[in-house]
Design brief:
There is one protein chain. With 1018 residues, the chain is mainly β. The protein has twelve helices and 58 strands. The strands form 13 sheets. It has a 22-stranded antiparallel β-barrel. Helix 6 runs antiparallel to helix 9.
């Protein structure tokens, strides 16, 4: 599970500093009483003070451990700011759990441009810190929040090492622009542009071990302070720091893991396939003659058992009394289960957090660097392994047909193919006597050749730096001046040198040399004024300015050369350079006002005026309003002891969207033609083509209404939140038909249409058991989101659904947008079924009743998005042992099973394709004979992909004072074992029901992973 963040105010650091000497002196005592102090969620409490009869005798260390001099049976009192003091009898191996004190709670939640007490929040904000015990395989930051936050859906794109992740907060707010949330790392809003495919994942730029907390802003009253970038929610990440007065603390965390594939498709083996082909074709048919003599399990050959490891070292402390620091380095080496795929990442981070001028001037300096190297296997091998003829040998020609064709030239052809089998065709067009045969270009490629001959290397270098300067004005301490300088720079390269034997570039090979660079520079400054009047009025007013500059450049190259055996050896066969650069600016003025009456009634007003270079009318205004009422502070409830918290929240806000669109669409542009596009009359004869432009294009705007209830019972041992929301996006940026002469395009981006999301979120946390030896905590979240397009008038010429997404063959799409339906609904024919419940081939419903089956009979059916998602985590501790697991559920999401659709046919043409190559068949193939659209676009293949997954289960053992000697307290830490992606319960027939695109088309499978890890503190 994850717990609510508790970022204590400076008194915490002072308490820790004052107690360090007490801790040191306690080591020399003889009547040592040892133990561990944790909070209600099981996290260690650092800096808790221990007293005996009013005399301070010690303080807990970084891990919540203590050792004090006290007689057995003496009364020990444990105190910590914001928690209820606890007095217990001294005994051996004590385990103390401190509960939150709701009357003196001093928790702070990081929000946009500042922080606020959690009890004073008016918007829908979830503040979480990673659970250090209940976790499985964690490679990137998003792994820590998956399934943990109501309204936040995290889905990895596949099981490929280091691959990116789709994050959605309260559904998508756009159709064509971006749906990615804004990520803010240590005050720097990130640029969502990527410089590669793998290591460029924004959240991979920071080491998960460096993260202190996540703060997720969900409703517009919370996100409107980010204006035009807040429509999809905001995730604020704060990294770890040192503490003032802290002694140097060295920590190490490491793990080793083994990953394996969970299952594969049940395809015919060699013997079954030979018998099947002979049953379909005549004995003297070329298809039968093309059968080999092997029995190859291609799926088994492309996968492996992957071994990965992860290591992190950090040093945190304080240089003197005023310069806290933290330095960390990390290494991740992740092998993929698909051969020739892996991901290596090196990270380094440093934080300096000095306080100067009698604590009036505070600096927070952060620098984070990352270098990653991803070896990317050709994932086309996954689909190839499924369909490749199992009778062929990977490394030889054994069929009657091939041996007859090759004669004495078999070895020469094998050499040309790199030693791998490929389907043959004449190479007379090469005019090269060394190449009598080549690979048939449309045939399935040899999966092993794809993996072992190819694979590109992607490298990413990134840097994120920030400097926060916070000054509390001398003599006017109610006024704070704050400035943040930030920079995000990343460069990605992709290189690959495909040999002449590589299947997809046979004979010519290919050289890839791509380079991308992005730069994101930030300056913001704001003033914040706090004031209390008559003890019942509190004002907090903030106003500021922000400037952000985004730059992106790419330089891509793809070249092919004639091979050494060609008459044109060394000459360029194909050269396709592609390069460009662009930039955009965002200038903003923003403000926020908070008013509190009697610590009971709260009002928040925010406004942001954004100026973007992406629109002709640069400026957009984004306001929000929120109100909260702490009902439990009213007189009629204040003395109800079992009620810890009851707060009502109401909010409204407007946010914008400007991501995912062109930077210069609002003014006229011309594109210069290539060298072959010349007209030698004027200048150099180049032809310039006008591009589409739209000077009326403006922001997408999302309005959100939110009502929430926060509650807590029994000293907050049972607490939670309920939120109800409605979000409506207007002026959707859609690709729609345009009038003549609007550039050279017949379609272009316009503001047409609207989209609505409405739903309910519930989050519950419960600590049913908390005793000396036992501790049990549970966390549950539930989300219901109803997504619907409310207007698309003008997006299509005749009002038909707008086809979107990837093709399922050369011409057909299966996803569509249409008014009244969820985004990414399936546009299909309605299948008819026989009495046996099986689909009847070629029988679909004539929905318009015109007596024929055409595209007009297709209808909108189900959607990719799940209306209901849930998450559940629990952890049980007994003395030093802990056991925890996490579950995640998705209900109502559907997937188009393209694998089963592609395997449905039994026609001779679908088995012996183009008279040149054979393809394997699924054991459970439907055996249909029709390849009509009504067959492949049947709703039979749109299948319920609801699931329940156990993401991880973890067993651990914590220890302290290991190898203690003299005044050295020894080593504390934890050893643990975990299993990730443990099981999936689903009715879906494919390998994995979790498909980001909604079209299941040979996705890199997610493996099951077994991990052993250790955390050590010196």
């Amino acid at each position: 599970m994850m717990k609510q963040v508790k970022i204590k105010l400076p008194l915490r650091a002072l308490t820790l500093a004052s107690g360090l000497l007490l801790t040191v002196s306690s080591f020399a005592q003889t009547n040592a009483i040892k133990g561990h102090v944790k909070d209600a969620s099981g996290e260690p409490v650092m800096g808790a003070t221990i007293t005996v009869n009013g005399k301070a005798v010690g303080i807990t260390d970084m891990d919540g451990n203590f050792s004090v001099d006290a007689a057995p049976g003496a009364n020990l009192t444990f105190t910590y700011l914001g928690m209820t003091p606890q007095t217990v009898k001294a005994s051996k191996e004590m385990n103390i759990t401190l509960q939150d004190d709701s009357k003196s709670l001093n928790e702070v939640v990081v929000i946009g441009y500042g922080a606020v007490k959690k009890s004073d929040l008016t918007g829908s904000v979830t503040a979480l810190t990673p659970d250090s015990k209940n976790k499985g395989l964690v490679v990137n930051a998003q792994d820590m929040i998956s399934g943990k936050i109501a309204g936040v859906n995290v889905t990895s794109n596949s099981g490929e090492p280091g691959v990116g992740t789709q994050i959605r907060i309260r559904g998508g707010s756009s159709l064509n622009a971006s749906n990615e949330p804004l990520i803010v790392i240590d005050g720097v809003p990130m640029d969502n542009n990527k410089v590669g495919n793998t290591g460029s994942n924004i959240l991979s730029t920071i080491n998960p071990q460096d993260i202190e907390s996540f703060n997720v802003l969900k409703d517009a009253s919370a996100t409107a302070i980010y204006g035009s970038r807040g429509s999809n929610g905001v995730i604020i990440i704060t990294t770890k720091k040192g503490s003032k007065g802290q002694k140097p603390q060295v920590s190490y965390s490491g793990s080793v893991s083994i990953s394996e594939k969970k299952k594969t498709y049940d395809m015919m083996d060699g013997d079954e396939y030979r018998a099947f082909i002979k049953s379909v074709f005549a004995e003297d048919d070329d298809a039968v003659k093309a059968l080999g003599t092997a029995n190859t399990d291609w799926q088994d050959l492309i996968y492996r058992t992957a071994v990965s490891h992860d290591h992190n070292i950090s040093v945190a402390g304080s240089a003197g009394k005023s310069l806290p620091y933290r330095v960390s380095v990390g290494y991740t080496g992740q092998e993929g289960i698909l051969k020739n795929s892996d991901y290596k990442r090196y990270t380094a981070a440093i934080n300096l957090n000095p306080s100067l001028l009698d604590n009036h001037l505070t600096l927070n300096l952060n620098a984070k660097g990352m270098h990653s190297k991803a070896k990317k296997a050709d994932t086309g091998a996954i689909g190839a392994a499924i369909t490749f003829d199992p009778t062929q040998s990977p490394y030889d020609f054994t069929s009657e047909r091939d041996l007859a064709m090759l004669g004495n030239g078999k070895q020469q052809t094998l050499n040309n193919f790199g030693g791998y089998f490929n389907w043959l065709t004449s190479a007379s067009g090469y005019n090269d006597p060394q190449w009598p045969y080549t690979r048939f270009k449309d045939a399935t490629s040899n999966p092993l050749a794809l993996l072992e001959l190819g694979g590109n290397v992607e490298k990413v270098n990134s840097f994120i730096g920030s400097a926060d300067i916070d000054y509390k004005v001398h003599g006017f301490e109610d006024l704070r001046l704050h400035m943040t300088l930030g920079a995000e720079v990343a460069k990605g390269t992709v290189t690959e040198n495909q040999p002449t034997s590589y299947p997809s570039t046979i004979y010519y090979g290919g050289i890839t040399d791509n380079s991308n660079l992005k730069r994101n520079l930030l300056l913001n400054a704001y003033a914040q004024y706090y004031k209390d009047f008559n003890k019942i009025h509190h004002f907090d007013i903030m106003g500021g300015y922000e400037y952000q500059h985004f730059f992106f450049r790419y330089n891509n190259s793809w070249k092919q050369y004639y091979p050494s055996t060609s008459p044109n050896a060394g000459e360029i066969f194909k050269d396709t350079p592609d390069y460009d650069k662009y930039e955009n600016f965002l200038v903003s003025f923003f403000g926020r006002a908070n008013y509190t009456l009697m610590n009971r009634y709260y009002l928040t007003v925010t406004v942001r005026d954004d100026g973007s270079s992406r629109f002709a009318d640069h400026w957009g205004l984004f306001p929000s309003f929120a109100f909260a009422w702490r009902v439990n502070e009213e007189g009629f409830l204040k003395n109800v002891k079992w009620l810890s918290n009851l707060k009502l929240r109401l909010g409204y806000g407007k946010t914008g969207q400007q991501e995912g669109i062109s930077n210069y669409i609002w003014f006229k542009q011309y594109k210069k033609g290539q060298n072959f596009g010349k007209y030698p009359v004027i200048g150099d004869g180049s032809i310039y083509t006008p591009l589409y432009y739209n000077d009326k294009l403006k922001w997408e705007t999302t309005e959100t209404y939110n009502a929430g209830l926060d509650f807590g019972f029994l000293d907050n041992r049972l607490n939670g939140t309920i939120d109800v929301y409605k979000r409506k996006t207007k002026d959707l940026i859609n690709d729609a038909p345009v009038a003549a002469l609007a550039g050279s395009a017949d379609k272009g981006l316009q503001n047409i249409g609207s989209l609505e999301n409405k739903g309910v979120e519930i989050a519950l946390n419960w600590v049913p058991v908390s005793t000396k030896d036992w501790y049990w905590t549970m966390s549950y979240n539930f989300t219901y989101n109803d997504n619907k397009i409310t207007d698309l008038n003008g997006v299509s010429d005749n009002g038909d659904p707008v086809l979107v997404g990837e093709n399922i063959d050369q011409s057909n799409k299966v996803l569509a947008y249409q008014t009244g339906y969820a985004a990414n609904s399936f546009y299909v024919f309605q299948q008819l079924y026989g009495k046996d419940g099986k689909p009847v081939e070629g029988a679909v419903v004539d929905r318009n009743g015109d007596g024929k089956i055409t595209d007009s009979d297709r209808y909108l059916y189900k959607s990719v998005m799940a209306p209901v998602t849930m998450g559940f985590s629990t952890r049980v501790e007994y003395k030093h042992f802990d056991l925890g697991f996490s579950l995640r559920a998705s209900i109502g999401n559907y997937v188009y099973n393209q694998f089963e659709q592609a395997q449905r046919l039994k026609t001779t043409g679908s088995l012996w394709c183009q008279g040149s190559f054979l393809v394997n068949r699924y054991v459970k193939s439907l055996g249909w004979m029709s390849d009509a659209n009504s067959s492949k676009l049947s709703d039979y293949f749109v299948q319920n992909a609801s699931f329940l997954k156990m993401d991880n289960i973890t067993l651990g053992y914590s220890f302290n004072n290991l190898f203690k000697a003299g005044s050295w307290k020894g080593i504390s830490g934890r050893v643990y074992g975990s299993v990730s992606n443990v099981f999936t319960i689903t009715k879906y027939d494919g390998l994995d029901p979790e498909v980001v695109s909604g079209i299941d088309n040979n996705v890199y499978p997610r493996p099951i992973t077994f991990l052993l890890g250790v955390n050590l503190n010196f």
